[in-house]
Automatic annotation (TrEMBL), chain A:
Protein name in UniProt: Presenilin
EC number: 3.4.23.-
Entry-linked PANTHER family: PRESENILIN, PRESENILIN-2
Keyword ATP-binding listed: no
Topology versus the membrane: Multi-pass membrane protein
Membrane-spanning segments: 94-112, 145-166, 173-195, 207-227, 234-250, 256-275, 392-413, 420-437
Keywords attached to this entry: Endoplasmic reticulum, Golgi apparatus, Hydrolase, Membrane, Notch signaling pathway, Protease, Transmembrane, Transmembrane helix
Family membership noted in the UniProt record: Belongs to the peptidase A22A family.
Protein function: Probable subunit of the gamma-secretase complex, an endoprotease complex that catalyzes the intramembrane cleavage of integral membrane proteins such as Notch receptors.
Gene3D superfamilies linked to this entry: Presenilin (1.10.472.100)
Domain notes: The PAL motif is required for normal active site conformation.
From TrEMBL, chain B:
Subunit and partners: Component of the gamma-secretase complex.
GO cellular component annotations of the record: gamma-secretase complex
The name this protein goes by in its record: Gamma-secretase subunit APH-1
Annotated source species: Phasianus colchicus
Location(s) in or outside the cell: Membrane
Gene that encodes it: LOC116239689
Gene Ontology BP terms: Notch signaling pathway; protein processing
């Protein structure tokens, strides 16, 4: 059994987490018991299964590990007294999220534009069984809607399954599942990616070298994500696996289905996080009732490193799962890791850890964003980059739209101080700008460029 | 073509703007957000103006050359006016934001002033405008080809890069002028910005006669630069002190 000392949970490719933004802050000191509960950002995640498609047999689902976690963000009650600082912190945290989102998108766009493999159509996943190769537009639209319904149903079922597992305390199952997922992502998908990049640039490489590289990459990734590691390395790994997952989606989702799925997932995110009967909300409430952290999921945390504070390493080491904070020597943020941080967990270590007091005092605030959000943002921008017209303006427009959506979501977070879904606003803006830039702005700018006119 | 042209044109077009970004904007998260929001506003204005142009083109006869040319001119002018309108809207939004920042701050003053916001907003508009004009060209410059093989100008990439650079600078200065005009109700500054923008865009109709478009644009840029400098508190004495590295010479710059 693995005890997660860091909350990280590696994310496996199949896992998608849709997470909303969460702000991680150090809870207020006064009564840390209550403070822990109230001030932590809770993340509820639902795990969703995602199929992983192998490049050879797209129709066989190789492994099913998909976890969706919807993470909700909630700010601590501490906000009130720190309201003056909200916007200032807010701006800093917005940038702390802009940078990784931008990096992930850059990786995906660079890959799409250079490696032909990810834009070739080699079949579809079994979750989108209807083909889009039909002659009529109506039929194609119908097929894509059906594909979306199937995909979203799978996601909902997985989410509910996760909530049920959590309710019946099957923690080992979930942890094992997540470990397996991240293992597959870090080794298999990276191997495929490396192979395609080498093919594109016609670089010869022998198997021993490949084995060495992949082994090191994967092993360090597993350690960083699930155990301890430097914060920036963890963040880098999270960005890389999000990019890999996004590339898989871009390759295997048919054209129209991908767009409809993006829209449907934003709506689902909205419902799951905000409705009282939503699975994520139920997950969070269950975790709160039990006063225990939700298992770590994939969350990217931008929290800054806290220096001092791990006063009692031994208590921390006692491993309950999620000691996240305690265990680390403070270098990594356990919280940063991806773990499923059911937010409750990462932020609220068990009451028996007095360390938390000091830890919290030292800790600086950070914001967490689920990896599922990274993935879907990158899918949108990647699909914009993969348009047959090869227009860069569309990609740039989608990129700016997503960043502005993220900024607005963070602003809403500062205002409402509760968990929020991060997908809807950004994806809506992204979709609007994609279709309008591709169809309206592109002809205009092309005409201007051909006459060398400037506006 | 290829790499040399690509890098050369990229640095000509975006070098100064990138340096401005690096030295004055990158450190402060609030400014980065204002920059990206400015870029977004420019994008929305472009979207709306493209929509109008697209509708007009679809509603007209595609074979009628003079009509298409006329629609293009109309599209360009309308786009310029819409960009300035969105600059005004952005000014309104930033005004509200300053009030919010003041309310949230501990000591009752905003962490960023309207002049700094004007500068950053200008850079945002400029960067987005330059990026949309230039990025597709740069992507094409990476590939093989011969410029002007069909009889067009061979200096296409180079002049595009210079034009983009001047346009980014112009947007920056126009931002400062425009916001100053809105703040102090100097309507002539606003009108001057609009007229200058129309003039610059109009001069590009002379392309490929580059002397008719680049030279006036650079002259206008110099005028706008001096004007913006003066409005931001600069003066000849300050400039001299700065250049001579005199002690306690705090040279006034739009963004401090």
């Amino acid at each position: 059994m693995i005890t997660f000392m860091n909350n990280s949970d590696s994310e496996d490719e199949p896992c998608n987490e849709r997470t909303s933004l969460m702000s991680a802050e150090s809870p207020p000191v006064p009564s840390y018991q209550d403070g822990l509960q109230a001030s932590e950002t809770r993340e509820a995640q639902t795990h969703r299964k995602r199929q992983t498609g192998s490049s050879r047999n797209p129709n066989n689902v190789a492994d099913e590990d998909a976890s969706n976690s919807d993470v909700r963000v909630r700010e601590s009650a501490l906000e009130n007294e720190e309201e003056e600082l909200t916007l200032k912190y807010g701006a800093k945290h917005v940038i702390m999220l802009f940078v990784p989102v931008t990096l992930c998108m850059i990786v995906v766009v660079a890959t799409i534009k250079s490696v032909r493999f990810y834009t070739e159509k080699n079949g579809q996943l079994i979750y989108t069984p209807f083909s889009e190769d039909t002659p009529s537009v109506g039929q194609r639209l119908l097929n894509s809607v059906l594909n979306t319904i199937i995909m979203i149903s799978v996601i909902v079922v997985m989410t509910v399954f996760l909530v049920v597992l959590y309710k019946y305390r099957c923690y080992k199952f979930i942890h094992g599942w997540l470990i397996l997922s991240s293992f597959m992502l870090l080794f298999l998908f990276t191997y495929i990616y490396l192979g395609e990049v080498l093919k594109t640039y016609n670089v010869a490489m022998d198997y021993p070298t490949v084995i060495l590289i992949i082994w090191n990459f994967g092993a360090v990734g597993m350690i960083c994500i699930h155990w301890k590691g430097p914060l920036q390395l963890q963040q880098a790994y999270l960005i890389m696996i999000s990019a890999l997952m996004a590339l898989v989606f871009i390759k295997y989702l048919p054209e129209w289905s991908a767009w409809v799925i993006l829209g449907a997932i934003s709506i689902y995110d909205l419902i799951a996080v905000l409705c009282p009967k939503g699975p994520l909300r139920m997950l969070v409430e269950t975790a709160q009732e039990r006063n225990e952290p939700i298992f770590p999921a994939l969350i990217y945390s931008s929290a800054m490193i806290w220096t001092v504070g791990m006063a009692k390493p031994d208590t921390a080491a006692k491993g309950q799962s999620q000691q996240t904070w305690n265990a680390d020597g403070g270098e990594n943020h356990s919280s940063t890791s991806h773990s499923d941080s059911q937010i409750l967990d990462t932020r609220s270590p068990a009451p028996s850890h007095p360390i938390t007091l000091e830890e919290m005092e030292e800790e600086e605030r950070g914001v967490k964003l689920g990896l599922g959000d990274f993935i879907f943002y990158s899918v949108l921008v990647g699909k914009a980059a993969a348009t047959p017209s090869g227009d860069w303006n569309t990609t740039l427009a989608c990129f700016v739209a997503i960043l502005i959506g993220l900024c607005l979501t963070l602003l809403l977070l500062a205002v409402f101080k509760k968990a929020l879904p991060a997908l809807p606003i950004s994806i809506t803006f992204g979709l609007i700008f994609y279709f309008s830039t591709d169809n309206l702005v592109r002809p205009f700018m092309d005409t201007l460029a051909s006459h060398q006119l400037y506006i | 073509m290829t790499l040399a042209v690509f890098f050369g044109c990229t640095f000509i077009a975006f070098g100064p703007a990138f340096s401005l970004f690096l030295f004055t904007i990158a450190r402060d998260p609030l400014r980065i957000i204002i920059l990206i929001a400015g870029a977004f506003f420019w994008l929305v204005s472009l979207l709306l103006s493209s929509l109008i142009w697209f509708i007009a083109v679809k509603a007209s006869d595609p074979r009628d050359e003079p009509l298409q040319k006329g629609l293009l001119i109309f599209g360009v002018m309308f786009s310029v006016l819409l960009q300035e309108a969105f600059r005004f809207l952005y000014y309104k939004l930033l005004r509200k934001a300053i009030e919010g920042l003041v309310a949230l701050s501990e000591d009752g003053c905003s962490p960023i002033s309207i002049q700094q916001m004007a500068y950053v907003a200008g850079v945002g508009f400029g960067l987005m405008s330059g990026a949309f004009s230039m990025i597709n060209l740069l992507a094409d410059a990476l590939g093989p080809g011969t410029v002007g093989i069909h009889g067009d100008s061979q200096l296409y990439f180079l002049t595009s890069a210079f034009m983009t650079m001047v346009l980014i600078f112009l947007h920056t200065f126009w931002g400062i002028l425009f916001f100053h005009g809105c703040e102090n109700r100097h309507w002539w500054e606003i009108v001057a910005v609009v007229v200058m923008h129309l003039a610059v865009s109009g001069s590009t109709f002379c392309n490929p006669l580059y002397v008719g478009s680049l030279v006036p644009s650079y002259v206008l840029m110099a005028i706008a630069a001096v004007w913006a400098y003066m409005l931001s508190g600069g003066s000849v004495q300050n400039l001299r002190r700065f250049l001579l590295c005199a002690q306690s010479g705090a040279s006034p710059q739009p963004a401090s």
